[in-house]
Write a structure and sequence with these properties.
Length: 158
């Protein structure tokens, strides 16, 4: 599906409360959580106030709440909607990269390529289009079926 990255991955031991900072263009990945504990992570993104920003970046993540709901119980209005005073230059969001990535994942899933799974889960969880979410879930189901079939063959059932 994609070219393998050459070179060596860098890593280290991390403990609860550790912070890792890197540039937004840094290729990165997580490793499997082999502990009995839940692993939580936070994605915080920053940019210069004078740089243009897409409206989606000013909205709460996940479309679970509105800002009015989040600010509902705040005792002070001082920091509510603080970015409005900065008069941000809002630009249209360009989703072409994500559309390209999603289409690659759909094609890979059709071929039974397991590398599509993470992107399919992301689509299933975040896509606004219900048909696209359903297609991602169907792709995950196909990968599950292919994986189970290969496990059965490996166990002598196929």
């Amino acid at each position: 599906m994609v070219d393998q990255l050459e070179g060596r991955w860098r890593g280290g031991d991390f403990n609860a409360g550790d912070v890792l900072l890197f540039h937004g263009m840094t290729v990165h990945r997580g490793t499997p959580n082999l502990s009995n504990s839940i692993r939580l992570s936070m994605d915080a993104r920053y940019q210069r106030a004078r740089d243009p920003i897409v409206e989606e970046a000013l909205m709460p993540v996940g479309d679970i709440w509105t800002w009015d709901q989040i600010y509902g119980d705040w005792k002070s209005d001082e920091l509510k909607y603080y970015w409005r005073a900065l008069n941000p230059r809002i630009i249209e969001y360009n989703s072409s990269f994500y559309e390209w990535r999603d289409n690659l994942a759909f094609e890979a899933a059709e071929k039974g390529d397991e590398t599509a799974r993470a992107v399919l889960w992301r689509i299933a969880q975040r896509a606004k289009d219900p048909a696209k979410r359903d297609r991602a879930l169907a792709g995950i189901g196909k990968l599950d079926a292919v994986g189970q079939g290969s496990a059965e063959r490996g166990a002598g059932y196929g």
